[in-house]
């Protein structure tokens, strides 16, 4: 009987592959080093889309061709968040050191679901550093996840199980499904409603609490909503506070909400996706007072810590409650007193995933390479740049500030006398598209008080004040171009109001 040839997927020629890897590493480093010289973003051409839509590859193409295809079809058409004038949404900018850590993690190919090996201890240390950073007690638990959406799902799962009044894991929601209600401000991220839907509570279980003039949760309205639900026979179980809303960067009164949660016996979950890491800044840390009282805290490393995507974290004040919500060790996952199956507890007992990548390495690497003090200074830089940008908006007659600047987000619009709301929305939407398509800058849009706003989020260690100047000058020029094209003569300017 003939014996089939046994081969691996390793290179046939390691020397040749090593040369290719060095070439690609140089290309990757060059890509980061020259970020400022490129357009922020460029549309993907139709011919590139067509080339990427190739048939399923049955025959090998070889690493050299794949690398060449990557450099030609993928690398030039990135989101743009490595560029210093990427201001859209809340994307971190990454670091060369983080890229190196990703390479090293890929070489190890570790599964951090559990067992006893070095990467597990790296993640445990990262979680411990985070526990200390946010002032959580020694018994706190935590887990690295893809981002705040998954962290929120985990935190609210623990909250639901603790507050349901019966064994949800064994019996399901039962009658509790129609009675449990949670609270978040009208500015809260959609991940909260999505988590409640996944948990079987439904989006109608989320009460949208009004906000004040600074876009922070109105605590009197929260207290009234809780009282009304209790009088209607419902079971309030959780309040989701936000440390840095996506629209404006507003920080809810965390200490005030924590006091309400204690008096009402409610779980306090804090969505700190990017704003929680303002705790690295001495200037902004006091605004997060009360975050240490959270029962669960979700935040991202891939935003203001500039760790490459993806990397988020969930901390739970009482780690044993997190373990009770997820632990499930079948025979094939049994631990051992010695050997590789040791290392209890396993991380798979603290969340829904058994297979987990080595996200912790790039976080560990970033914290050790740069240190908290330097990382905190970058938070300060971005907040100072936002304040300066807001000042330019206030001072220019064609620009109107639409929200207070809380941290690093500036919301404003281009305007002119006599414009209708529809005209303002249309021209500001077109300004943003033009800025993006010309490769000058990449802000995003949102709606505040019914008005379409140009939203500039500065979560970028490469951004400089000159980038704010470039943005404003280009934005004004494009606005005037569009206005001139739409009217025979530009209307006289007026002093914008705040």
Number of helices: 14
Helix content: 40-55%
Taken in chain order, the helices and strands follow as HHHHHEHHEHEHEHEEEHHEEHEEH
Q: Multimeric state of these chains?
A: single chain
CATH superfamily of the largest domain: Type I PLP-dependent aspartate aminotransferase-like (Major domain)
Q: Which tags fit this structure?
A:
disordered C terminus; single chain; 2 domains; globular; 498 residues; Aspartate Aminotransferase, domain 1; alpha/beta; 7-stranded mixed sheet; Aspartate Aminotransferase, domain 2; 4-stranded antiparallel sheet; 14 helices
Structure in words:
The chain is of the alpha/beta class. Helix content is 41%, strand content 12%. The protein has helices spanning 14-33, 46-52, 63-74, 96-108, 118-133, 148-163, 168-171, 190-198, 219-231, 254-264, 319-326, 360-395, 421-437, 465-486; strands spanning 141-145, 180-185, 206-209, 235-242, 267-271, 296-300, 312-316, 399-401, 409-414, 444-448, 451-457. Strands 1-7-6-5-4-2-3 form a 7-stranded mixed beta sheet, with helices on both faces. Strands 8-9-11-10 form a 4-stranded antiparallel beta sheet. The protein starts with 13 loop residues before the first helix and ends in a 12-residue tail after the last helix. 44% of the residues are buried.
